[in-house]
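TEACHING EXERCISE
Course module: macromolecular assemblies
Task: Read the component lines below, then compare them to the predicted structure of the full complex.
Student: A.B.
Group: 4
Components provided:
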Amino acid sequence: MTRWLWRRVLQAVGTFAIAVVLMFVLMRLAPGDPLSRLQEGRPMSPAEVEHLRRLYRLDQPISAQFAEFVGGVFTGDLGTSIEHGLPVTTLLASRLPATLLLGGAAILLNFTLGLWLGVRQAVRRGSREDRTLTLLSLAGYATPSFWLALVLAWLVGIRLGWLPVAGMRDPLLAPDAPWLARALDMAAHLVLPALTLSIVTIAGTMRYQRNALLEVLRLPYIGTARAKGIPEISVVWRHAWRNAVFPVITLFGLWLPLLVTGSVFVEMVFAWPGLGSLAATAASSRDYPLVMGAALLAAGLVVTASLLTDLAYALLDPRVRYS
Amino acid sequence: MPRTTHLVLAAVLVGGPAVRPPVASAQRDPANIVIVTGQQATTPVPTLIEGSQNTLANQDVADQLFLRLVGIGPGMVTAGDRGFVPLLAQSWMRRDSVTLVFDIDPRARWHDGAPITSRDVVFTMGRARDSTIAPRLANVTRRIASVEAEGDHRVVFRFRQVYAEQLYDASFHTAILPAHLLEGLPATEQAWAPFVARPVGSGPYRWVRRQEGEFIELAANDDFFLGAPAIKRVIVRVAVNADARINLLLAGDADATENIPPPLTNIERVESAGHLKLVTVPSSNLGYLLFNYRDPSHRDRPHRILADREVRRALILALDRQLLVRAVLGPYGEVPYGPVSSQLWIRHGAPKAAPQDLATARRLLAGRGWVDRDHDGVRENRRGERLALNLTVPSSSQQRMQMAAIIQEQLRQVGVRLDVVRLEPAVWTERRSAGNFDIDFSASTQDPSPSGLAFSWTCDGPGNAGRYCDRGADSLLFRAIASPTADRRLWHDFLRRVEEAAPAAFLYSQLYVFSVDRRFPEVTLRPVSAWSSLWRWPAPRS
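Instructor-supplied answer key:
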């Protein structure tokens, strides 16, 4: 197990390094540079352009830029964002909590509600409820997140006035307001974006859970449990579900990075100050340092999530043995 | 459906309204204003608004925090010494044709209570004129020879030459910084980081806090020497996405927004909300089709079609620019005469732009040998080359994409084939700078001063991407710039010459449409810095 773990960690580090190199090269190969975007609508004099090239070290050969970037990764200095004029690490650190909060809430909703509904569907297989939930979940899965976000913002935020339509907190709420008031305010701002993200991803969890549980419910030991007179709720949740949850762990590993980095549209529509929208605007403006910082974080998340999934399997499923 | 599901639905419906946060909307305290913008102000500090930080967002916040010596008056006239209003300087006078003297208002104080003196002005202008740290500012203030203090409250500006915009150059490009806080620091932005994080200014509002990626909060400076603002708290909220900005307005979570982006339905949505009003402001935005005089593949050769002035004129006459403006901008735009945005003072009294004239356009093209010989709807010359051109448009501009489709159809009517090439903004700018286009759908943000036209519309202008060159037009422009008075006729001579050469089809000068909550009774928005008069707004209604 220890040897396997070391090998797996080394693989993860290798994957991470390859991803980072690829991203650096692809970003530099893409046409247009940060200075060309700055000149959109406001042309600059050659002296100004030259000054900025020097300032952002764009006058250096690509190999020197790469060496500087790699050096920065080890020293924790990822440079200064061209667009924001702030250190990349400061920017990422300031945006990460918002992303983790949104992604965490969406994952929580996804897996609590998704697992519960998936189990209900499996237990009531073929019923009207099963068919209705399948239909609803597939409709949610097929709905584009940006469209759903706009509809929810309009309906719940503007027409009904129940929830805030955008942002992460009310700027008029004093920073020294009671913590409960601040927590409630943030929770209210979180509902719509988290709901949007969950609705479009929950179908996958439900389907996985439903099918996995149906497989397990067919096994002889479940029949034995029922024959022993164990209550049905116990049969489902204690005996069957514990063995049916492993496929969903794989799904968790897949969703984890996606919910952190893949929420660009949702963050944009709800003006959520997270990493997704930051990275998207950075990419379109060719803000190299910020794009690379965000890419580093995203690659790290993907690799870590994948590693954690493998580990979870190894630890939780007694049938799985690694050597 | 089972009972549990019913219960969940009922809880959502009943509990929904209760979820609304404790602080519901911007309207709780009428003395607050929440302005939602599309861009975050990251460095709202004069002399640091350079390069990537040269954004409207930075300028707008800086204008609340820092004062200039004098401000441009309501007429937006940048020439001469009379069209300005006092700010930090209570008065100014001329010693001779190249010397201006400013007297600083002795009541003026920094937000930390220190008095504002001539030392602050000398320090700021020293930073602004240092090309190693502020190349843009150094370039636009290059005609200032020296700035010296005479006592604590008098500053003397000397200029290298006689020209009409001396006062404008001395006052507009930068507001004044506190020397007592910054003098000891190196000039680099990094060294100023603590000051950038919490700027100390002299303006009507002082800095309170920044929530990264969300908002900036400012509070009224009740000791402001020109009068305490009636609006006590200003929140500048960021929502990059236009839909999010409009949603915030409609939901009452914001009181005002900057220019409402296209399509026109966005304006209609805002207009239909009873609590909001629209305010139009002349903008610095000018849209035009820039013709390339040089061959995109061989820059040393003339363009095979567009080097011909008669062809360029024909293309312009084929366009129904009024229709274009009405269709895309509605009542919020006009067809300019020459490269003149709606905020430039020289537009007053200028001739009208030529209307569409298809017959003349066809005649001009035929006269230059462009005839539809094979009757396929596209003209050819004698060598069989088709009258086909590319129009490059940045994909980020919905407005220009809409117009491009109409232009394509209008040019088709005179036998010109136009292919619209939609490019990602960074690629579009790169191709434009490299001269790699036939016709470029440009949109520029102009300075309030017409002398900025030299940047793009002179032979040696660094922003002259189409390689238009007419030494006669250059001399007319430089004569207008060098004139000691604000003489519109000199400028109009230059504009006429440009229109005759037809280096571009000037399509629209835009009016920006702002939206403000109706509880603010008298709203003044300025063309150059929209919110800079906020402190003069009367108290809002409860």
